[in-house]
Amino acid sequence: MTIQATNTLGNIVKQHHLAAHVLEKYRLDFCCKGKQTLAVACADNNLVLNDVLDDLQQVLINEQYQAPQTEDMNVEELISLIVRKHHLYVLQQGASIQHHLHKVASKHGEKYPYMIKVWEVFMPALAHLHDHMKKEEQVLFPRMRDVYAASKQQQAKVFSVAYLQAPIAAMEAEHDDAGDAFSLIRELTNDYTIPEGACNTFSLLMMELQDFEADLHRHVHLENHVLFPAALQLIAAN
Fold first, then answer.
1. How far apart are CA 113 and CA 85, in angstroms?
2. What are phi and psi of 37, to 5 degrees?
3. Are 218 and 67 in contact (CB under 8 A)?
4. Nearest alpha carbon to residue 218 among 113, 68, 104, 99
5. Cα separation of 122 and 109, whole Å?
6. pLDDT digits (tens, 9 = 90+) for 134-176
């Protein structure tokens, strides 16, 4: 599947919501001018159509990218994957959602008051996720790397299980808090339902929120059920 110059901006985002980042990069208005074709929009904005198309095609490649198999990954590889894929996603996509959610809540909050509540839930949840990831990257993950390095020299038992258990327990509790926040957002938005007649930004926002929650589930699963047990096992196995 490819994105064509004859596709409208609105349909491009509707079918591939991550394409919104490309259109915003080029200042192409997929909301109010969503009925414009990509070719017309590029011409109106003095943009090189092929440059925009190339960036949009990269979105399709990223969509088709299959998540790597984690069963045979070691602790170092798992940490690298989590930071590169999921932590970066939270930073980038969280900022995009914040931008779009502010627009929707401020412009459409009177008609859809539940979106103001979504703002009130999402913003502290995102801030807590940022703090959470810093604690993992600055405290827990370095400890796990220490244990992994020692295990390669068959010295993992120099660490007590408590060296990892306490920060792991704290991170798992924060995972639960994040999950609860997005369960509430899902409830507030009636499973991310797009209201009839919603503008393109509103529609995009619902897709972004749903995708964010889905990635959060994969992120938490990978940590709770793959990385954390693997790191603890290194201490117990030697």
1. 34
2. -75, 160
3. yes
4. 68
5. 15
6. 999 999 999 999 999 998 887 666 788 899 999 999 999 999 9
